[in-house]
Amino acid sequence: MFSPDRSSHNGEERESGTNYAEPAVGDPLDAAPPPPHRTEDGSTILPNGTIVHPAAERLFAGCPWVRNIPVVGGAVEGYGPAFVLALCMAYFLCKGIADQIIGFSRQPMMTKRFGIDGDRYQRLASLYSMGWAIKAFIAMMTDTFAFLGYTKRWYMVISCIGGAAFALGYGLLPAKESSANIAAGFIFLTCLGKSNVDILSEGHYSRLIRRNPVPGPSLVSCLWVCILTGTLIASVIQGPLSDGGKTQIGVFVSAVLQFVTAIFFIFNMYGERPNVVERLQDLRYAKAALAKAQAEARQADGSTSDVGDELLEKPVKKDLHPENDGAIYDEVQLGDPSLVGLQDVYGVPNGDSNNSEKGGTSPNMVVAAMDEIDEEEQLAIRTCLFGAFEINKEVVSRNWKVVVYCVIMTVSVVTMVCVTILGTTYDLMYACIVLSVVCIVCAFLTLPRVIAKANVFTYMYFTLYIQLPGALDAFYVADEECLPGGPHFTYTFYNTVGAVIQNIGGMIGVTLFTYVFSKQNYQVTMCVSVSLMIIASVFDIVIVERWNLYIGIPDHAMYICGDAVVYQVCYMFSYMPVVLLMSRLCPRGSESMVYALMAGFANLGQTMSNAIGSLLVEFRFPFKSKVPCDFHNVRWLIIIGHLLMPLAIVPLSFLLLPRVRICDDIDVNGHAIHAQLRSEKKRAEEEAAAEAERQQNAGNDGAALYDELGTVNEPCVETAGK
Questions:
Q1: Compositional bias of type Basic and acidic residues: which residue ranges (predicted)?
Q2: Long-range contacts: 549-557, Cβ < 8 Å, 24+?
């Protein structure tokens, strides 16, 4: 991936404040140390393999203590202080504070300022999650059409400015009931802007992590710290404003913060390189990977002719953990000529490493031929609208099935937006049925079977746990006039304390998953998740029925033991296993698009969950959140939506998820690899024992194979008998 700096061959040397190489043997006192190895962007490669960004070198020289900051130091070392600062601030301001303020403002804006009833708010609340449901389409469009030379930079600028404008419009709408529908549309559009920034930022830093994977976990940890911190600050801002009847001021703050985020992209603080440069570098990586793969194949066959020594530095070894390979977000799949069109241009058959025997070309001939057309490859990028857009057509041509699915999902979301705002109850019911069937069927038609089943399970998981914001929010914050003897939570408690509890619940979920459930199978984890959801919902029923007062437990104490905490724990239990499953199954080169599809499908499931809650309210269990209030049907909504319907998740987990442990490596059919490897290990042991009787060297080879197979999935194998 990286090459040493060749400037020394031309009589030039790069300066460095640290000597990373030992003096030359033979004249240790007089010989100058050779220059350190550097990557193409000037980063230094230390002897231990650590890659240090040049800006980080300068920062550490003046402020060495920065390197020792937990999490932050590692991220800055690998990716540079400017990028880490810009990325963390973008997530802190946009996805942290700005987005959460919009979320916290929905109920008081809709019911207090615009004056709509709780059942209407139940329907319109789903517009918030719809804005996050078309990530994959945005990712595909921006990768295909580079705007003003960049695939992400200017799209994020437009998203920040446009999203801020819609947030401002949301806050400026007149305080009357007729404004509610327009406000819901503005919420959808401002969330769409934040969603764009999120998915495009993920795409950019995933490329950087692919090139320098070691500090990647530190970078992601920094982002989550910023998001959670932003969530807490948003709750502190919005709660008191909502209690004081000034909810719209928080919305204005959200608009300003989203607008300010655009500054990072205007000045390109992410350091994104032009589309042409990225495409050429992707091509060089693909060429190098292709040449090395063919060289290793020739070495394995015992023929090393026409193979450079630099391609044979490492011994050939079977890759037993291909899922650990990182993801390039954009269009090129490393080492696979079919994704860059090399098999068509250079006569390299796809998947055929022995092409020289079938009339193909040798690796050196391939690389030489490709080196001659770098300029043609650059000119092959088409433009339109006087060069404003560059078209990377292979993004669509190589992933056309996924692109079709992205379009179908986007059309489904837009349809749901229109029907939710303008449609009747029956329109909403028909739309939910038709769009659910279409999206599920298309998932199986366009995605690999195991990935499609995992996506459908994620969708059904979030759909079957019915969201009831209209009923529960109205019940918990209703005043004495509306609900005598009710909980009467303030927005400060409901938002601020609720946010703190949810974050704590999320961290508990991550910890339990990492140390307890990561070695369980998917079905056990989902059964535990459903059980916790049902237990938490019992607390909500206790509060609604006011039983907690009979046993002397205050509403506030009972609330923090219920859905507020446990839902986040269950969310982590359900979502993290599917994410890990995807990491093992995603086609290389299409990972981020498939991840975006999964996230979008999950958000669409939350949208459907809200819609089903609206149908329950409008068809059978109405309630009133205006004086005279009537919440007697809320108990039935909780029983059906939070107790009964989630039970269907358990059989679906057996039907749609692989019956393996979460820690197991699996093949494309969802079967655990370690069982197959144990069989191969046993067979290799028998062959090695037989061979040892005839020839000692063959026995050593068999033992080596035994050792290699024996290292696969050690953590899982150790717990197999427990």
A1: 1-16
A2: 555/487, 555/489, 556/487, 556/489, 556/493, 556/497
Give the residue ranges of the chain where pLDDT is below 50: 1-26, 28-30, 304-370, 372-379, 701-722
Task: Spell out the residues 6+ positions from residue 705 whose beta carbon is closer than 8 angstroms to its own.
Answer: 684, 688
The string of DSSP codes covering 287-356 is HHHHHHHHHHHHHHTT--TT--GGGGSSPP---S-GGGS----SS--TT-GGGTTHHHHS---TT-S-GG
Residue (of 396, 303, 380, 292) closest to 336 by Cα position? 292
* Tokens of residue 304, six digits: 């090393």
What pLDDT, on a 0 to 100 scale, did the predictor assign at position 647? 92
CB within 8 Å of 375: residues ≥ 6 apart: none
d(CA 575, CA 458): 7
Q: What is the pLDDT of residue 362?
A: 45
User: Cα-flanking dihedrals φ and ψ of residue 60, to 5°?
Assistant: -70, -30
Helix (H, G, I), strand (E, B) or coil at 384: strand
293 and 373 Cβ atoms separated by less than 8 Å: no
- What is the DSSP secondary-structure string of 151-210? SSHHHHHHHHHHHHHHHHHHHHS-SSTTHHHHHHHHHHHHHHHHHHHHHHHHHHHHHHHH
Smallest Cα–Cα separation from 417: which of 218, 583, 610?
Answer: 610
Tokens 């990492």 sit on residue: 514
Structure tokens given for 474: 């109205």
Q: Which pair of tokens denotes residue 707?
A: 């050792």
Helix axes 247-266, 216-243, angle to 10 degrees: 150
Taking CA 200 as the corner, what is the angle to CA 408 and CA 127, rounded to the nearest 5 degrees? 50
Residue 485: per-residue pLDDT: 87
CA distance 375 to 257: 42
The pLDDT of residue 390 is: 87
- Measured CA to CA, the distance from residue 567 to residue 545 in angstroms comes to 21
pLDDT tens digits along 559-577: 887 766 677 777 777 777 7
Given this model, what pLDDT does residue 369 score?
Answer: 46
Q: Hey, is 373 helix, strand or coil?
A: coil
- CA–CA dist 416, 439 (Å, integer): 13
List the structure tokens of 447: 């995605």
Q: Which of 273, 289, 260 is nearest to 97 (CA)?
A: 260
Task: Give the Cα separation of 342 and 355 in Å (integer).
Answer: 13
* CB within 8 Å of 604: residues ≥ 6 apart: 130, 133, 409, 412, 413, 416, 439, 459
Neighbouring residues of 395: CB distance < 8 A, sequence distance ≥ 6: 140, 143, 144, 330, 331, 403
* Contact criterion met (CB below 8 Å) for 363 and 295: yes
Q: What is d(CA 594, CA 661) in angstroms, rounded to the nearest whole number?
A: 22
pLDDT at 336 (0 to 100): 38
Beta bridge partners of 383: 390
Quick one: CA dihedral 299, 302, 305, 310, positive or negative?
A: positive
